[in-house]
Every structure is written in C-alpha cells, then in structure tokens.
Specification:
Shape: globular
CATH architecture: Roll
Largest sheet: 5 strands, mixed
Number of helices: 3
CATH superfamily: Beta-grasp domain
Strand content: 15-25%
Helix content: 10-25%
Number of strands: 5
C-alpha cells in the first residue's frame, strides 16, 4: 500500500510516498508497520496509549478516519492513504 506522508514526516520516511506491506487490514496495522520501518515516526504520531496525537490526521480516500472507524478503519491496497502531522501557521 502506498502511503503519502507530509511536512516533517517526509524527512523521517525519506520521501512523500512510502510503500508499506502491513500485517493486517486496518489503519492501525499500516501505522504499526510504518513505525517498525521508521522508529522515529512513533513519537510524531502516537501518544503513550497508542492513540493518534492531537492534530495528527489520517485520510483514506479523502475522508478523515475520525468520520469512519478511527484506527480500526479497514483499508485495501487500492485506497489512497494520507498521513498528516500537526501543522501550524498563519
């Protein structure tokens, strides 16, 4: 599955697009595999309870997972997966 990452996450993951082969079919499985591939990613996206940090957003096919089943949202190889870190500005 191709995951698009943005802002400072690009530096951690080595580019905008990351090919991920998760061990399951949920958003959390994809993110777990990404953390396994890029350990520095963990502190950028998860809190100590393995929940997304505030203002970290995951979009599947343009829809925020908070409007779906959260980290339990089922994904497929064809889905567009985008991961956004907190971004500030004005």
């Amino acid at each position: 599955m191709l995951v698009r990452v943005f802002a400072n996450l690009r530096d951690i993951c080595g580019g905008v697009g990351v090919e991920v082969q998760p061990d399951g079919y949920r958003v959390i499985d994809v993110l777990d595999k990404m953390v396994e591939m890029f350990p520095d990613l963990k502190d950028e996206i998860f809190n100590d309870h393995k929940e997304l940090l505030p203002f970290v957003h995951v979009f599947i096919n343009g829809r925020n997972i908070i409007h779906l089943d959260g980290l339990e949202t089922v994904v497929s190889e064809k889905d567009q997966f985008a991961l956004f870190p907190p971004v500030a500005g004005g």
